[in-house]
Amino acid sequence: MATASDGAEAVRVARTFRPDVLVLDVMMPGMDGIEASGKIREFSPKIPALFRPSDTFKKFYDSAYRELYTQVYTEGTASSLLATITESIPASEDLTEEEIAEKSKTLRTFLNQRAEALEKALAN
Predict the structure, then answer these.
(1) Do residue 115 and residue 98 come from a single domain?
(2) 47 CB contacts (<8 Å, ≥6 apart)?
(3) pLDDT tens track for 12-71
């Protein structure tokens, strides 16, 4: 097993150590884990990678998600947000209006599920 303190070091270590699997932090200093895995896969293309979120990433995600929840659900802007998203997707040969409507429906379902999950988490 080998360790690295940042993404660039992870690439250097992987080049010499040739690990069987990568376990990388999403938010390493300098080059993040996702970018580091891409560079490592340039010389070791089949290596599996596991990504773990850092505490900083978790805090950022929780904060951003709570803010989004507040803006979209508490302030009642979910429908207008979906309408804006739908209007901004132009119909084309590749994406029909029916497909856009279906994607919008899927997005609405996803947002509702996430809102329910967040409400439960905030209640605890």
Answers:
(1) yes
(2) 14, 19, 20, 21, 22, 40, 41
(3) 999 999 999 998 887 788 888 889 999 999 999 999 888 877 666 666 666 666 666 666
23 in helix, strand or coil?
strand
In a domain, 2, yes or no: no
How many CB atoms lie under 10 A from the CB of residue 58?
13
**What domain range includes position 86?**
56-123
Q: What is the enclosing helix (H) or strand (E) of 106? A: helix 97-123
DSSP per-residue codes, 41-81: HHHSTT--EEEE--HHHHHHHHHHHHHHHIIIIITT-HHHH
With respect to residue 1, please indicate whether it lies within any of the assigned structural domains.
Answer: no
Q: pTM surpassing 0.90?
A: no
b/e sequence 16-48, b meaning 16+ C-beta within 10 Å:
eeebeebebbebbeebbbebbbebbeeeeeeee
Looking at 21, 37, 52, the residue that finishes a domain is 52
The DSSP output letter for 24 is E
